[in-house]
Amino acid sequence: MILESIVTTVDAQGIVNIAPMGPQVDDESFSAITLKPFRSSRTYANLMHGGTAVVHVTDDVELIARAAIGPVCGDGLTLPLLGRWHRLVDCCRWFAVEIVSWQDDPLRPLANCQIVHRGDQRPMFGFNRGKHAVIEAAILATRLEMLGRDEVRRQMNDLAVWVQKTGGVSEHRAWALLESFVDG
After folding, report:
1. Would you say the pTM of this structure is higher than 0.85?
2. Residue 142 sits in which domain range?
3. Are residues 104 and 15 part of one domain?
4. Distance between CA 36 and CA 107 in Å, rounded?
5. What percent of the chain has pLDDT above 70?
6. Domain check: are 20 and 77 in the same one?
7. What is the DSSP code string of 31-61?
8. 107 SS3 class
9. pLDDT range class, residue 27, cuts 50, 70, 90
């Protein structure tokens, strides 16, 4: 099963990177997590350097949108955790992981992780169609070079109605940010 999440990693200089990612989880018990970073990403470089990450379950689609379209550093958004990890201040649940093995792939290697710490931060608000639409649009924005601007725009136009009908202030801000990014 794929879990849409936010992953935090730390580089060699101690700078926290916040990135959206859809890791594989075995099931709802979360006994294993497999990260699938793109080789070209900061997350991959940080994982290769430190071998640790924190996977966050969040309903903050505005942060997901921001992280999808550009670098988001952890300043003010994260807290250190046991000296090796950084977790989001505002999330629902988090899982601190260590990589136990890699499966090589030319595009997206698989980092098989063990969960070494976990916590619940706050109750999850839940998702409405507006939140789902923002998540889908954020994923599309990360595929802009692969799909092309016209195709991403077409798919976003199909999703826009759900943000308009069911989204709140945060979803509308996230949507505007994604539209601006896609429109160039």
Report:
1. yes
2. 129-183
3. yes
4. 9
5. 99
6. yes
7. --EEE---TTSHHHHHHHHH-EEEEEE---H
8. coil
9. confident
Closest listed residue to residue 111, CA positions, set 125, 121, 122, 100: 100
Q: Looking at the DSSP assignment, which residues form a beta bridge with residue 136?
A: none
Buried b (16+ CB within 10 A) or exposed e, 155-180: bbeebbebbeeebeebbebbbebbbe
- What is the total count of domains within the chain? 2
Nearest-5° Cα angle at 55, 128 to 12: 135
In this structure, the number of other CB atoms found within 10 A of the CB of residue 149 comes to 12
**And the tokens for 101?**
């093995």
> CA distances (Å), 86 to each of 79, 111, 144, in order?
5, 18, 29
Helix (H) or strand (E) segment spanning residue 153: helix 149-166
Per-residue pLDDT of 149-175, as tens digits, reads 999 999 999 999 999 999 999 999 999
65/103 same-domain check:
yes
Q: Which amino acid appears at position 17 of this protein?
A: N
Length of the chain measured in residues: 184
